[in-house]
């Protein structure tokens, strides 16, 4: 039986083996047939083998249509072409120009402002990027995502200005304004040759940067001049192109100008990949650039004005707020733009006060007063607030422009459009019982299709008068809250019969309106109106002519010029502010050579409750260097001769700031020590060293305290050591027998081999070989040595040698001189400079701007000399492959180029350098006024 079972197992294995041989044989034949097919192809016998080929039977297919209810599949999607990929390999030369990219054959149909009739092209550079791949460049320029691009549309205003309340542009004859520009004499032939040579050099540097932009960043915001790529920090509307239009005209590059003007038509200001529009930057660069090019070209190119109006209509929508103060970062997309807006309670002063020149010029050209009305209201509010600040006469860098003490009320309700804000007419009060719900109102359904069933409201919970316990009070007994939005309080919702509903309108306070039935009102929370206020109620406030404030003060005299002197408040506001600046911000720096120059610093003012004296920080920033030109212009047009001397010294201060560094370029900002007087200031090295190392005395005092503590600790440690040493007694020498008896004894059979080996190596004493049964408690009786317990241990001399306690030993600090010299060397500080706040240079124009103004106002050739030195230093250290670039540190011998070229390099910096050496009649200060981006607007005559 046993054998029979074994045979059955063998039979099963044999069957499996035969089956496996059969399967392997089939696969081998298939392999052989495939091999023979290849051989037939080589021998030209393919046709014969095809005659013997038999098709495999077809697999049955499902004939019933698959129909699943998928909501997402029913949403129509716009067809989209695949991204265009361009690869530049190492050694292939320059990457291809974005302007040569072929148009995709399939693209979304844009929806322009106001309907399909205003359709425009998709903005260039929309969601495009250039990424590095290995050593080559892979440029991917996809179309917008599968979601169709969003386009701005004009919305109905929530807070419109009544036509009778619009502040109109002055249209009278301009007043006589004193001459600004110096009366230059005719130059000599040698002077002309030298000037034209320098002019040609400046023009060639401009042309190289413009060609780089044209080839690698056409219609994009900015060129990356090192890598030959681009970036779009603004709105992808070709910032450099629009910003540079007037520079092309001024330099006589007519062919390039005409090409750029045509390219403006490809810009669509109704859409952008950016979610918000920066109002200030867009106004000074784009709107200013378009209007200046339109003025310079003699109003020839109408498309420039058309595009300016298109952009202005988008920007003017940001002013639709209760107090008409603009939203400085405008959320333009219709879903956001259709809601009510409120200006921020923390607005940068320059972003609020630097819109006047551009919108005024647009109003003058188009004869549309709404543009002037928008900025005139800002001026009025600044005028009211000017003498109510902590430093009366100036404004802090941050301002609360919300106009309402209840913050962010617009986020609580969605407010439909209302009629213009004007005095309401006396309307008859409708009894509450006559307001009936409309019978035509459709039923409200939930998302699931169920009917909404309104629930009765519980009586409101209020505090009992004079107590803290909440009580229920009937609705009729609750006094209606007061709403103050500049209009009388209304008792009930003013609705047409067709819009009446079942809501208890008598108990819902709303803002009155005079809109038609298509413009219903909505309730708003209470608001206590206010004018411009400070955003820093509890902290310090900054008052400065530098960043975040600069162009607000700059635009006061320029707006006065542009309006022909017809609005006197601009002069009053300017003179008031400059008097405060001279008394509180202008200072003379303490320098080793006693240079007679001036800087405009930053004043930090604490809240009045703290009763602290304002602190003047001795800062000189590149952005503040415009002040020399402003003071010079104000001195001429407002007859303030003393201000012209201040203007010269402020400009000389910025020239000194260029000369103080290794590169000959001024850093973004640095700190010096202010002198107490503007007339004289002796060099005080002790004071300078204290500023470099203000903690010297504290560091020395701390070291002295540590030394004193060290001496006390050493005395205590020494006494303890002497006492321990006195009690120490060396143990008597032991005989070998005593040493052996003192060792612990264990039995051999209780140890493993490793323990036994370790014991033999470490303790060569005897190991018992007695069996475990002969040991009491596992230890031999004669090896048990009783220990001494109890007794006065202090009376027994210690047999352990004492160790001296560890005591912290203070290290001597660096000396005052060592710290000072180390800071000067490590930070590469020029003499007299305490700290460099920002070492970089981003091609800023403010210093050469004031140099140009000083030359045109004084006629002194000195300004041309220092201007040329500035140009050579800048071009030497910023020149890149395709243009000029920002650098990281002007204190280095060889600064690192950061591959960034802002649009103002071509729009401002090189324009001012060119105008400095051009004929003085070009852009005369008596005929033109330049905005803060150096865009010239024609003055009224």
TrEMBL record:
Skewed-composition ranges (Pro residues): 93-107
Biological process terms in GO annotation: carbohydrate metabolic process; ERAD pathway
Cofactor: Ca(2+)
Top EC class, one word: hydrolase
Top-rank lineage group of the source organism: Eukaryota
Pfam families the UniProt entry points to: Glyco_hydro_47
Name listed for the protein in its UniProt record: alpha-1,2-Mannosidase
Source species: Melanomma pulvis-pyrius CBS 109.77
